[in-house]
Amino acid sequence: MARKPRLAAGRARALGLPTRGTTNPNRLRRVDRWMTGTLSSFLLDAADPLVVDLGYGATPITTVEMAARLRAVRPDVRVLGLEIDQERVDAGKAVADPPWLDFRRGGFELAGARPVLLRAFNVLRQYTEEQSFEAWDTMLSRMAPGGLVIEGTCDEIGRRCTWVTLNSDGPQTFTLACKPSGIEVPSDLAERLPKALIHKNVPGERVHALLAELDACWATAAPFAPFGPRARWVESARLLTERGWPVVDDRRRWRLGEISLEWAAVAP
C-alpha cells in the first residue's frame, strides 16, 4: 500500500516529506516570469500580498530570486519560504529580511500562513497521484480567499517546465514553457509533466493527445525554422489554437516559449 504523507515531527507539525533539495540559481525563472506577466493584475489587486514558496530546496536562492522579481510588480510584496528540513530553514534565515522575506518550517499546511499566491515547484514528484491530489486540496484549503496555487515541475536548469494553476474551484490552466532551441519536439517536455499528468501521457488520455498535436504543429511549422526556434514555437502555438485547442494566451507569451491552455484540455 502506498504510504501517505506524514506529519513530520516537531513543533511546526509540518505536513509532507522532505524533497531531494536539488536547486540551482535561476532555475525557476520561467515560472517567475509568467507570474510577473500573466498575474501582474492579480498581484496588484491583492489586499495582502503574501506569497509562499513551498519546498525551495537545499538553498534559498530561488525564493530570494522570486521575491526580487515579484517586487518589481508589487513593491510591498511579502515572501515566505517554507521547508520541512530545519537545516534548509536555517539557511534561509541567514538571508532573510523580515517582513519582506522570511523563512519558516512548514509543509502543505503552510505553517499557518494564508497567502494569496503559492508556488510549489518540484515538490510533488515523490508522491503518488492520489497523494498529489490530496496535497492540492490541503494547500488550497489554507489559501487566502481568491488565492492561487502554481504547482509544477522543471528540469535542473529550468529550460523545460510545466505547471498547473489552481484556485478554490480546482485546476484552471496548464502551461508548457521551454527554451525552444533546447528541444527536438515539444513532447520533450513530457518528462517534466506534473505528478497529476505524468502517468497519463499514454494513448487515450488528453495530455497525450495534446503533446501529439503540438508535435504535429511543430512539424507543420518547419518552414519557420530558418527564422529560429522561437519563431517556430510561435507558429506551432498559433496552429494549435487554429485547430481548436483552448489556448488562453497569445503571441506575447508564445514568444517567450510558453503556451497555456484551459485545464479541461488535459484533465485526466
Automatic annotation (TrEMBL):
SUPFAM superfamilies in UniProt: S-adenosyl-L-methionine-dependent methyltransferases
A GO molecular-function annotation: methyltransferase activity
Record keyword Transferase present: yes
Record's keyword terms, sorted: Methyltransferase, Transferase
GO biological process terms held by the UniProt record: methylation
The protein's name in its UniProt record: Methylase
Originating organism: Lentzea aerocolonigenes
